[in-house]
Amino acid sequence: MQEEIDNLLGRKFERKDYEVEKYPHEAYIRLEWVDNFEQIQSYIDLAYQLR
Known about the structure:
Blueprint: H1 2-9, H2 17-22, H3 41-49
């Protein structure tokens, strides 16, 4: 999922190796990279459903 978000925003969020192993279920979105809320709305909805 992180790769999908990175591709959507056109930037790669660099995670440390231990973060990938310790938190594989997490994805990060740097809000300053978001031009329009609709870009990430589906990911917010999915996160809400999976909580």
